[in-house]
Write a structure and sequence with these properties.
The complex is a heterodimer. By secondary structure, chain A is mainly α. Chain A is 64% helix and 0% strand. Chain B has a single domain, classed as Globins (Globin-like, Orthogonal Bundle), CATH 1.10.490. Chain B is built from nine helices and no strands. The chains are: A mainly alpha, B mainly alpha. Chains A and B meet through α2, α6 and α7 of A and α3, α8 and α9 of B. Chain A: It comes from Myripristis murdjan. Chain A: Pfam families: Globin.
Chain lengths: 133, 154
């Protein structure tokens, strides 16, 4: 587990904030959740800021890896009752995170690291969807 | 019929022009750009289709398995067919789809897993050149391919 936390600790969060704008471009259907922002272009400030918020949440979850469901309880409630994001989008965002990680760390993002991060993100998504029903 | 903009056609053609199939499947000691059927490692249940391919015991075995590398090249050449027939991928893939359904009995969800791994390997090779616009065109192409491959299943 410690081998895959390094991309998150080494990363200042700024390049990883590009994950959200990338997702909005590659999977335009995800823009439906952000209709309250007029500007959804990649350079848009609210989009970049929100990208940092999300990646901060993912980084936090790394420290809760031994009890994701318990650790993410309030976030799950937020996504279930307030944001009401279809959980299929967690998979889409996870894929975009993996793409950006492999771009940023081509040498270190080995198949084994890929496996570990993918597994972690899948469990994170499950924990986030815990309160949906 | 899928509509492709000129920009999308150019972007996708560029990816293939810069792709060295042999390079992308062989294990590289200094870095791990290789496709090496990466999905066999990341999604181990996909190994079920490769019983006759020798040693798949661990990640190293998979990465150094020549039969797996050769198969990776075969799959990439299969994608060639889609690029050459972008305006009718559905029909270009009809026999391939039947093959995967009737003979190989591959669960179509595996096409999506492989295409995700392929995107990640290409991203690691291209770095910042794998822009969101490029990824969008590429993702659209892969979605069409995956759909066409699954079309003849019944």
């Amino acid at each position: 587990l410690s081998s895959f936390t390094f991309p998150f600790t080494r990363e200042s969060g700024v390049p990883l904030s590009s994950v959200l704008p990338r997702m909005l471009t590659v999977y335009p259907q995800t823009k439906s959740y952000f209709a309250h922002w007029k500007d959804l272009s990649p350079g848009s400030p609210p989009v970049r800021k929100h990208g940092i918020t999300i990646m901060g949440g993912v980084y936090d979850a790394v420290s809760k890896v031994d009890d994701l469901v318990g650790g993410l309880l309030t976030l799950s409630e937020l996504h279930a009752f307030m944001l009401r994001i279809d959980p299929v989008n967690f998979k889409i965002l996870s894929h975009c995170m993996l793409v950006v990680l492999s771009m940023l760390f081509p040498e270190d993002f080995t198949p084994q690291v890929h496996l570990a991060v993918d597994k972690f993100l899948a469990l994170l998504a499950l924990a986030l969807a815990e309160k949906y029903r | 019929m899928v509509e492709w903009t000129d920009q999308e056609r150019t972007l996708i053609a560029n990816i293939f022009a810069n792709l060295d199939y042999e390079d992308i499947v062989k294990p590289d000691v200094s870095c791990h750009h290789s496709l090496c059927l990466r999905c066999l490692i990341v999604y181990p249940w996909t190994q079920r289709y490769f019983g006759g391919f020798g040693n798949l015991y661990n990640a190293d075995a998979i990465m150094n398995n020549p039969m797996i590398s050769a198969h990776g090249v075969k799959i990439l050449h299969g994608l060639d067919r889609a690029v050459k027939n972008m305006d009718d991928i559905k029909n270009a893939y009809a026999t391939l789809s039947e093959l995967h359904s009737e003979k190989l009995h591959v669960d179509p969800d595996n096409f999506r897993l492989l295409s995700d791994c392929l995107s990640i390997v290409i991203a690691s090779k291209m770095g910042y050149d794998f822009t969101p616009d490029l990824q969008a065109a590429w993702q659209k192409f892969l979605t069409v391919v995956v759909f066409a491959l699954g079309r003849q299943y019944h």
